[in-house]
Amino acid sequence: MKGFIIIGVSGGIGKSIFNKLSNDYFTIGITSKNNIKHENFFFYSLSDKLSNQKKSLDKINSELKKYKDYDFTILFNSTIYDKKDDTLADKNKILEVNFFNQISLFKYLENTIKINISKIVFFSSFEALKKQSKMRYYRLSKILYLDEYFYIIKNNKNLIVKLFMLGGIKTESYFKNSKITNNIILKHLPKDLNKASNYIISKIKSDKSEIIYYPKSYYFLYLINRILKK
In this structure, are residues 162 and 212 in contact, taking their beta carbons and an 8 Å threshold? Predict the structure, then answer.
């Protein structure tokens, strides 16, 4: 039997994927927002240390121990972004929420609860491929997923890893954190949320490790930009 654990389900692509997968599979969502109520959503603060969250971890453990015979796929989706007036603590929080504390939770599920994890899915960004970015720490957190992908590919042959390099997807956070362009071509590059989540689900079902660029138009623009700058 297959199961899914999605870290970051309060909105956007995580919520959309959760809603679709939960129609056919046992799926739980991990969220840092404790005001969101759903029988399969579990609160876990990604801005706090694992050692400080016994109550939250006990609830997750209590649910998952019913599914010891399942093969789980974990999706690392939770993301926060740089703000103009970020302090050093805020910058550190971006790295903790976007990467380190999600990896810590994964290790806890694997080594302490000891559920069967056959596949993990990382969400990186085309922002990670830029030499410079106004979202410096968001970019850095997405570079860490690139590095983690290649490390696991080399050192853990039993674990399937998917790495999505994502461009514009029409979510609330995308419109909040991206500049709205008047360029008629660039304006139509971002993909519809429903189509994007359907595409991601179709790709994570295959049993091979791979890097997936979506939307592909962003990857072609990235290549063209590199050629022009040489």
Answer: yes
Using an 8 Å Cβ cutoff, are 197 and 13 in contact?
Answer: yes
pLDDT tens digits for range 77-134: 999 999 999 999 999 999 999 999 999 999 999 999 999 999 999 999 989 988 888 8
Q: Give the whole-angstrom CA distance, residue 164 versus residue 123.
A: 5
Per the structure block, which two tokens stand in for 59? 């609830």
Domain count, the chain: 1
Torsion of CA 81, 205, 212, 136, to 10 degrees: 10
Range of the domain at 141: 2-228
Question: Which CATH number do you get for residue 38?
Answer: 3.40.50.720
What distances in angstroms separate CA 102 from CA 10, 37, 131, one per listed residue? 15, 21, 25
Separation in Å, CA 120 to CA 11, 69, 204? 20, 17, 9
